[in-house]
Design a protein that fits this description.
Elements lengths: L1 E7 L8 H4 L2 E8 L6 E11 L1 H7 L9 E2 L3 E9 L11 E4 L9 H4 L7 H9 L9 E2 L5 E4 L9 E5 L3 E4 L5 H4 L5 H13 L7 E4 L3 H13 L4 E5 L5 H6 L4 E4 L5 H8 L4 E6 L4 H9 L1 E9 L13 H6 L3 E4 L7 H13 L9 E5 L4 H9 L5 E5 L1
Parallel strand pairs: 4-8, 11-12, 11-14, 12-13, 14-15, 15-16, 17-18
Antiparallel strand pairs: 1-2, 1-4, 2-7, 3-5, 3-9, 3-18, 5-6, 6-10, 7-8
Helix pairs in contact: 6-7, 6-12
């Protein structure tokens, strides 16, 4: 079928993107789903820094590519050998397909699926190959097995989680990345308990989702840090007990004073090795730093090595919130319905597909939390 999609051909074009137009809205050909795959009409797709890092070239990906990885939609066609899905089902996409058979999947670590990681690196679907052709008959790659900035997309059934129809698409889309990553980092990776101290470094969509998760877990104090201080009012409304300008020279000293020597858990969501080192410095003896941000591949972290031993401190990576999507998406949605995860407060803008470059300008300038394209 022919569909409209946002195609990236040349990463690294200069901002403002509304002028340089790195994402071109093209009419492309989408092949039918193969075995184990679904064709989905996309209803909503969120703009995330992981998309922006592909646009600006800091996260190299094979090109050309249809972008978008945080999305939701309705199944319109089911490929052969698919179980558990049918036409008309609503789904949220997960940006790491999990095969269910490799070592990490078998041990409950779906975010580390080995075939899924290989497919994502190659820009293919889990079963191999691509399903997109441009107007000249040339193949286009898939971003993280989703390519949600399109009217329709084909995904592996292992990249989808079924949800109820009554969840608004612009809210449902957020559970595919921001919520799964941020809340998962708190409840799956850090395993924060009530009364434990937490600091959140970076108040974008993932960072604010982590803040919501920490509040739901009963963290106290719950400290929010960012250089964009205009985000502090929302952070306080969502549960932050204290907000600190991360650009202040005494920011970590203030945090350690508030938390009586440092927090038990620091969650870093910026994707900067400098901010990660700052988050590590914010933890107390025996504390844990969880990083969900994705720095450029050539960036290196420097910390006092001795402190890992004589202070028993820990650094943990958290990819996709250490989530098992089929388990965590439904339970995080249930927490939203119960009023414990008000993720709708993170939604700041609704866009049309042809406004997407302007949306990424807004994201790059930290003028938005979560923007959603409605298709």
């Amino acid at each position: 079928m022919k569909v409209k999609a946002a195609v990236l051909r040349q990463p690294g074009r200069p901002a403002p993107y509304a002028r340089s137009q790195p994402l071109a809205i093209e009419t492309v050909e989408l092949a039918p789903p193969g075995p184990g795959e679904l064709c989905v009409r996309v209803l909503a797709a969120g703009l995330c820094h992981s998309d922006l890092s592909v646009i600006d070239g800091s996260r190299p990906r094979p090109m050309p590519m249809v972008l978008g990885h945080e999305a939701t939609g309705e199944i319109v066609e089911v490929g052969a050998d698919v179980q558990g899905f049918r036409v008309g089902d609503r789904v949220v996409f997960c940006f790491i397909p999990n095969c269910g058979r490799c070592g990490p999947c078998a041990s409950g670590r779906a975010a580390l699926c080995e075939p899924g990681a290989a497919a994502n690196a190659a820009g293919t679907l889990l079963g191999g190959g691509t399903r997109w052709l441009d107007a000249n008959g040339m193949p286009l790659r898939h971003l993280l097995g989703v390519s949600g900035f399109a009217e329709y997309t084909v995904v592996s059934a292992r990249s989808a989680v079924r949800i109820d129809h009554d969840l608004a698409p612009e809210i449902a889309a957020l559970f595919g990345c921001a919520v799964m990553t941020g809340v998962g980092a708190v409840v799956n990776t850090a395993k924060v308990s009530a009364g434990e101290s937490v600091a959140i470094f970076g108040l974008g969509g993932v960072g604010l989702a982590a803040l919501l998760g920490a509040r739901a877990a009963g963290a106290n104090p719950l400290i929010a840090l960012d250089v964009a201080t205009h985000k502090f009012s929302l952070a306080r409304e969502l549960g932050a007990t204290h907000c600190i300008d991360a650009a202040d020279a005494d920011a970590i000293d203030r945090l350690r004073e508030i938390s009586h020597g440092g927090v038990q858990f620091a969650i870093e969501s910026v994707g900067s090795e400098r901010v990660l080192a700052q988050a590590y410095a914010a933890t107390r003896r025996g504390g844990t730093t969880v990083t969900v941000g994705l720095p450029a591949p050539d960036r290196m972290l420097s910390i006092p090595a001795l402190s890992l031993v004589n202070e028993e401190r820990t650094i943990k990576g958290s990819y996709m919130g250490s989530s098992v999507p089929s388990r965590d998406v439904p339970r995080f949605i249930a927490l939203y319905r119960a009023g414990l995860l008000p993720v709708d407060r993170m939604l700041t803008h609704r866009l049309q597909l042809d406004e997407i470059n302007t949306g990424f300008d807004r994201l790059a300038r930290a003028e938005a939390i979560r923007q959603v394209v409605l298709l």
